Amino acid sequence: MKTALVTGGSRGIGRATALLLAQHGYQVAVNYRQREEAAAEVVSLIQQQGGKAFSVQADISDEQQVVAMFRSLDQQGAVLSALVNNAGILFQQTSVAQLNAERINRVFATNVTGTFLCCREAVKRMSFQYGGQGGAIVNVSSAAARSGAPHEYVDYAASKGAVDTLTRGLALEVAAQGIRVNAVRPGLIYTDMHADGGEADRVNRIAPTLPMQRGGEPDEIANAILWLLSEAASYVTGTFIDAAGGR
Ligand code: NAP
């Protein structure tokens, strides 16, 4: 059975992705940082639907925890064929003039370093060079990488710009090793993340200004991720799907 690891699989886009991948025959490793109950609920929902899943705690910004998470998958005999680097954070909306190093480093530690570390561990397991059977990685970037998110969170936007560059560079490094690497750049999606920015209702405020005049649902991102991971996308690597309602 193919195994998919979804980082930040306990809530929002990660949760929707974990549920959808399970429906499409993946055994899903549901990673979470702190909300154990939310991750357990995703696992239980998958099992109720006849799928296979387990939860795995790790803060992806911590190298030792990332290494331990991948080792625990190995110990369960899971052959990793898909990785979704979905975990990401942002903080209170503000301007660059108000940012400090501590916050910038925290955002980058999870969104950039954490994504790099998970990519590294996955490559070591998937790459032909390391005796693997190939696989696919999807990074969850953001439309913010293109917009810059001025007066909201330029630090977050810049971290997603780095994720885009990682996607491109790694895709080219491992293209001949049986691994495809792509990214999805969601626009405004209804999740709890906006509350972390201090504006829980942000999607509804901005939605009327979007070409499609509505926010997106986590499922609409999960479907793009599913496709990029699937054999239907077998000749697609190093590229991006903008799922942002036309923005
Ligand atoms: P969310 O609802 O806030 O959920 C975040 C998830 O990431 C949770 O499962 C959380 O785990 C996990 N997480 C956070 N930091 C982590 C860490 N250091 N290690 C492991 N897990 C961690 O977020 P979301 O809106 O679904 O966003 C998912 C991804 O989509 C992010 O990369 C985000 O940047 C991107 N995105 C979102 C939107 C949007 O409009 N929502 C738009 C563009 C891009 P716990 O539950 O344990 O806290």
TrEMBL record:
**Do you know which SMART domains this protein is assigned to?**
PKS_KR
Protein family per UniProt: Belongs to the short-chain dehydrogenases/reductases (SDR) family.
Classification via SUPFAM superfamilies: NAD(P)-binding Rossmann-fold domains
* Ketoreductase domain boundaries: 2-189
Query: Which InterPro entries does this one have?
Result: KR_dom, NAD(P)-bd_dom_sf, Sc_DH/Rdtase_CS, SDR_fam
Question: Protein name, please?
Answer: SDR family oxidoreductase
UniProt keyword annotations, A-Z: Oxidoreductase
Signal peptide, first to last residue: none
PROSITE patterns per UniProt: ADH_SHORT
